[in-house]
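A brief tutorial aside. Many learners find it easier to grasp structure tokens once they have seen a single protein encoded end to end. The record that follows does exactly this for Orotidine 5'-phosphate decarboxylase. Read the sequence first, then the structure, and try to relate runs of similar tokens to stretches of the chain.
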Amino acid sequence: MVSFNEKLKAFAVELYKVDAVKFGEFKTKVGLMTPVYCDLRVLVSHPKLMETLATLLIEYLEKIKNFNLLCGVPYTALPIATVVSIKTAIPMVMRRSERNTTAPKNAIVLLNREQGGAKILENNGIKMHALLSLTELMQFLREADCIDHEMVSRVKNYLAGTQVDVKSFQKVLSEDRLKMSFLARAKLAKNPVAAELFQIMATKQTNLCVAADVTNSVDLLNLAELVEIAERHNFILFEDRKFADIGKTVELQYSKGIYKISSWAKLVTAHSLTGKGVLDAIKGSEDSDKRGVFLLAETSAAGSLITADYTKATLTLAEEYPELIAGIVCQSPLFLANPGLIQLTPGVQLESKSDSLGQQYNTPESIVLDRGADVAVVGRGITKAMEKEAAAKKYKDMLWASYSKRIEQ
């Protein structure tokens, strides 16, 4: 008779064969690089494998006492729960979108990634039961020669370095910036320009930033006139300078020279590449009182050399300068538990595509709902349009509708 463990091993190999579990280099939604990627959604396309999984779950369910209902969490677990319900005649219920005060006492999962999820569920009164742990899965696949020792070591090191802190997770649940309105977040902003920008966006109902990449003075108003117009029409001037030099050089670039950026731009961008010096230089300038910095943590350029560790270090640096940092330039929904910061995301077009220089674009809806942008930067989609005003209005309406949808979900 085949043991349950042997059945699990055979099932693990099948998961690998259908690419439900993949090994290599993958980027998560929060910007971390991972050597393993689990996509159990593909199971619905493999009926025999779905039946095998249901049979394993039914056998495993015998260990759990005192339950009389099944509920598959949408969407991946929904068809799995349906098959189990049909085979066992155990009634199934649908998860509703509204929050309910009653909660399940047991959660059965196919794969425990071993990054702290079980502890979080336990703290919320839910006992987790797993068919497989990621460690067991790797052991089975190694025994079947599907992966080598080096990959096993890489995954183990990844798991050791990405454990979820329970306290931080609870803070995310209570202060998820993606669910909060700009007005609510304005009260939490420690940088005065970030607070002002939140207020402006809420009042004018727009989260559009236009990148005016011009190369001659005819295309751009003189700065004195531009500052006056900004004050009159309630918008903020932002210089995408991307400072990245030693402190003294940045100090001169920011407040001296022919441009005197600090005298007219309330917001600038900077790399964290050279460490604290760049921020100390900006903070020490005479115009630093109502000024803010966006630190660049990720880029939309294909082939970028920015790593997950660099992104993490950038976020840590931002925490050390709360009164100066207005937000983060990134492509992923980072810093969820810091709603006072603004996520600025470039690379927006009406259609997803890329240009000849490696710039990758996302749609207005995707940039806000999937990538977590608070402010979306649109350049050529507006500045190169035949009808610039109409194009700007279209982007404005689409971006604001996506933001409204996000906070209502």
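Self-check: The longest helix spans residues 388-408. If you spotted this yourself, you are ready for the next section.
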